[in-house]
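Hi R.,

Here's the chain you asked about this morning:
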Amino acid sequence: MAPTDITAGTIPMSFVLNLLNGTPLDPAGQADALARAGIAPVLLGAETARVTTEQFATLYRQLASQLDDELPGMFSRPVRSGSLKFLCLSLLDSATLQTALFRLSRFFHLLLDDFRIELSREGSLVRMALIPRMPQAAANTFGQEILLKLIHGVASWLTGHRMTLARVDCSYRRPSHASEYGFLYPGPVFFEQAVSALYFEAAQLATPIRQDRRSLARFLARAPGDWLFVAFEQHPTRQKVREHLRPRLGLPISAGQTASALHLSLRTLTRRLAAEGTTFQAIKDELRRDATIQLLTKTNTPIAVIGQEMGFEDPNAFHRAFRKWTGSTPGAYRPK
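And the predicted structure, written out as tokens:
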């Protein structure tokens, strides 16, 4: 059995709810898909609950298979199994990313009635915009989130590196999980814009395509994980703090000690984190939360031991902290 990566991230339960709500499955079908993904149904009602990215990807694959729809239930007609494979095959012989993105926009013109993907030049930027083709499409927030991620994930895979974005526009209001966007999109995000769109620096589109049929097989085997959950962090100080804390989650590391390790004063570290919209304690809690969920869902390690590994000598303090992080008890995350 492969070792558990306790540093892997988690995502909010709202992603699971949005995914399920778009499907025509009855409660029994949804319960079966959740069970196969290792997601406890009781967590669906917990507003602050989280799931691992692996659990979400597994649920996504289950629904895609059951519904024969690679964007399960998100749009007015299904995207049949094999569509992503044929899309990527059509892109592999493109000379540059620009040609590939143009082909991608034409491919989705054949697949989707809800949106067309418009490729246009705006000064030094190239915009990939989702233009609604039917009245109800503009209200489909989750479908737009996933489609933007698919475009970006495929572009990143084609070029062999994580593509940065000059900006991301979202036509909808700021969602409750907007804080997660820093990990979904590698660029500044703006809400309530005219249309949802990704903006690339024009020079990036001259990047050659670096993939072939052999690497495509690996990419498809890991879908949707490789295009949906490509982790990004656009806040350099927060990222440095996370990297320092990850191997030390069970130790009583203070903000002052971390500042010294990063060759900063405590005041400077605090100021920089505040400018990035976070605090030292928030970063530490996020890491411990995600690590705990990974261990609860992937191992049989006793809950009390997990608490100790996260730096809690008192089991009651660990339970209180976990409930504060997720709205549920650690036991609710254990597979039944």
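The chain has a mean pLDDT of 90.

Let me know if you need anything else.
M.
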